[in-house]
């Protein structure tokens, strides 16, 4: 695959400026850059959804497989069972019917080259699906992605994370020659992620992957494509994400050294020009040299390099508007199950103390997001109660970002009576929306940018209990660190569901609720432990019962 002179603007905003790259057929390419740099847009161009202003992308004649960040099922897929949905990634039976029809036509019109061409095309496509290993590969993917317990369920009955996981399994089974993966690990527990990473590393085809997960990128990729939001250029690097960061850091150090030299030279020339302008009229030699240096100064200023935009964090007040009781939230003997499903919790009880940061962890489909919805009153428990302290105020960040109005600007979305516009703009700068960026409509933002707006809006509510459901799903590694700083400073009570140990550690989680796997159709015993990174890794990697 190659790209030549890619140029693209949205209104007055230039996204790509004469970008080119070239990759080989079996390359595994990590596509990186800050939120809003144009990573997902590049995928849309490859898929033919977006059009370039100029330039071209040359694609190999391969089937494309695409995993978007947000899975939207077609209406006719809602009632399909999980097993059949995954198997439909290789529609061999449908293709065989079409092939038989073409053979019937060919029997009547043996001179038709068009029919013969369609026969060859269909046969090649069927062969590419590797029929001999069809059942074996399907079963392997289902088992390794821990979907065995879901195979008889209807797609409409799955949680959002389970749907994403099933869609990913279907894509792997499809065996396309070129995979486009947009944040594929958002809904994967660590055990499944390890299988997927190794599967992709050995995949017999080209892969372009956008991911905020550094470990995943380091395992999968052998090339890195960096989209630079500041310069609007693209640069390819040999090596994984860690190699790219090392090379890029060296480039930035050299760039800084070069620009510093340019600035020093410009300063000397400007000082000389200023002396010449203030010289006596009789000093014609100095005045003449000043005119020469003025032209030199113009040339040097035009050649001056641009430093990468640096994030400057502003101190802002993120204290809750009022302090909660000592116990802002308590769950007493909570039990819940979905219709036709296994019990998720059986008499689950715990209480939070004011100011603590509490992690809920467990594999997909185990009930993490469901528990948050029960706390928020979006679902009703089978039994038990959720008790808020009488001074508790709550702000809730859901993965679906329902709290945003896409028709309004960023600034309008976060507007609050508790802050002036100047304070809000300072807060938005902390969430990487500096200057005039605050006037962009939310509807034109990338998923990662929308997530930042929603997280900023959560803090502006000045609630004393904040609930976050996978807040870093759409954020690149650098942005995660910056956003984490804002929540580290929050001194209210925090409940977070997250698969990102780095973010969890950064915000200072103190305790963790572990929801183990279902066993024998009985609700699992939830465990509450003091937080430790080793314990979290042990649970995810070994996927065993903790005692």
Describe this protein's structure.
The chain is an alpha/beta fold and 547 residues long. Among the domains are: 257-303; 329-542, P-loop containing nucleotide triphosphate hydrolases (Rossmann fold). The protein contains 17 helices and 18 strands. It has a six-stranded mixed β-sheet, with helices on both faces. The longest helix has 37 residues, at 241-277. The two termini are 51 Å apart.
Secondary-structure blueprint of this entry?
Elements lengths: L1 E9 L2 E10 L5 E5 L6 H8 L7 E5 L5 E4 L14 H6 L4 H17 L4 H16 L5 H11 L15 H15 L3 E5 L7 H12 L4 E5 L3 H7 L2 E6 L4 E6 L2 H37 L6 H20 L25 E9 L5 E10 L4 E5 L6 H9 L6 E6 L5 E4 L12 H5 L6 H10 L16 H14 L4 E5 L7 H12 L4 E5 L3 H7 L3 E4 L12 E4 L2 H10 L5
Parallel strand pairs: 3-7, 3-8, 5-6, 6-7, 12-16, 12-17, 14-15, 15-16
Antiparallel strand pairs: 1-2, 1-4, 8-9, 10-11, 10-13, 17-18
Helix pairs in contact: 3-4, 7-8, 9-10, 15-16
Averaging pLDDT over every residue, what do you get? Answer: 85
Euclidean distance between termini CA atoms: 51 Å
| Uncertain spans | 542-547
The CATH superfamily of the domain at 329-542 is identified as: P-loop containing nucleotide triphosphate hydrolases
Approximate shape? flat
Q: Strand portion, in percent?
A: 15-25%
Radius of gyration: 28 Å
Largest sheet: 6 strands, mixed
Task: Give the CATH architecture of the domain at 329-542.
Answer: 3-Layer(aba) Sandwich
**Number of helical runs?**
17
Order of strands side by side in the largest beta sheet? 5-6-7-3-8-9
**What is the percent of helical residues?**
25-40%
Number of strand elements: 18
- Would you tell me which CATH topology of the domain at 329-542 applies? Rossmann fold
Please give the CATH class of the domain at 329-542: Alpha Beta
